[in-house]
Specification:
The protein is mostly beta strands. It is built from two helices and eleven strands. It starts with 13 loop residues before the first strand and ends with a strand. It comes from Chelatococcus reniformis.
Length: 157
């Protein structure tokens, strides 16, 4: 018997030719296709599967990575706790909704409150299920985290 995959293999990480035309070091998120691209030199990119915000909570635009965190604490924004009063601040660790790593997205000096982060629900990669953040499997977000510099450009479309 063949074991069941944790997520759809079409969302597996792999190296491919760059289709973004962006400068190396740029992150591009294609929310419709549920893919994140990290642009490398020599017209290459790494493609990762992601979960994105559902239609009501999606976000798009340009931002920069202004902070990176390992096993971050989760502090749900006021809008989220108003919708779901049961959500509470959670210390970093394996059960935390932000997963193993987080990239904090800013526009200028203003925190967008959106993140690229890991997840404790990898089976949801490829779906529109979050409150706007970009979720990655923990192994993929660790890989991206190790490649990305603070100040990196992020485009979410």
């Amino acid at each position: 018997m063949v074991p069941k995959a944790e997520f759809d293999p079409q969302y597996a990480r792999y190296l491919t030719d760059d289709e973004t035309g962006e400068a190396p070091g740029t992150i591009v998120v294609d929310t419709k296709r549920r893919l994140l691209f990290y642009v490398l030199p020599n017209r290459k990119m790494i493609r990762y599967g992601v979960a994105v915000g559902d239609e009501a909570y999606g976000w798009s635009g340009a931002a920069t990575v202004q902070r990176k965190a390992e096993w971050p604490d989760w502090n749900p924004p006021a809008e989220m706790t108003a919708r779901w009063p049961h959500v509470r601040k959670t210390a970093g660790g394996p059960g935390n909704p932000l997963g193993a790593r987080a990239l904090y997205l800013f526009q200028g000096n203003k925190d967008t409150l959106y993140r690229i982060h890991g997840t404790n629900e990898p089976e949801k990669i490829g779906r529109a299920v979050s409150s706007g953040c970009i979720r990655m499997s923990n192994i993929d977000v660790i890989d991206l985290y190790n490649r990305v510099s603070v100040g990196a450009k992020v485009i979410v479309k």
